[in-house]
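Input chain follows. Return structure tokens only.
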Amino acid sequence: MQRESPVRPDLSLALFKPSARAALILGPLVAAAVGLALYLRYGVIQYTPIGLACEAGEESLTCMVRIAVINVFERGGFGWTALAAALVQLWRPNITAFTIGLLSAAFGLVLYNTRLSALAVALLVLSLARAWSATR
């Protein structure tokens, strides 16, 4: 004979879980973000000939992108963006904040903002266990 539990869980709120369509879009987006970040890191920022040319004063699109990315990661831009989006996702779960947090964290983990980006990834994983109402 089973005992009935005096406390019953509220089943009106489900856990946040991206839909299958969103997951099919998120997978390639995150892979592309990691690929672009790896290219920027190893093909533009750390590539010696491009670094020497940019330091010598060459004004090309590659050098402008290199300088912009360096300025963003020196100020922790990727990590702070990922952390802000993860906190919004934890507070009010939605697919937009989840996507922005995931993409920013992918860039941050590859482009030297590892501490804040890792914290953002942990918060994003934690947000998957957060109750979410589809009526919001």
